[in-house]
């Protein structure tokens, strides 16, 4: 019984360590996600406040069909 208790205790310790490692990783990923979201919002706001007409021409030109010879 004591041996089983010791084994379960060791498994529990490993699970706790893995849980802490995953929690730290999740926090870092969340911080990265928040930074990327903030960057995206800034770019969208900048694009809305300063529209670039050349970008519309780029897309329309890239989808146009080639002229016949």
Could you characterize what this model shows?
- The chain has 69 residues and is mainly alpha-helical.
- It has helices at residues 2-49, 53-63.
- The chain starts with a helix and ends in a 6-residue tail after the last helix.
- The model has no long low-confidence stretch (mean pLDDT 85).
Summarize the structure.
This protein has 2 helices and no strands. The chain has helices at residues 2-49, 53-63. The radius of gyration is 27 Å and the shape is rod-shaped.
Helix content: over 70%
Give, in order, the helices and strands: HH
User: If helices are DSSP runs of H or I spanning 4 or more residues, what is the number of helices?
Assistant: 2
Overall shape: it is rod-shaped
- What proportion of the residues form beta strands (DSSP E)? under 5%
**What Rg is obtained from the alpha carbons, in whole angstroms?**
27 Å
- Oligomerization status of the protein chains: single chain
Q: What is the number of strand segments?
A: 0
SSE layout:
Blueprint: H1 2-49, H2 53-63
What characteristics describe this protein?
rod-shaped; 69 residues; 86% helix
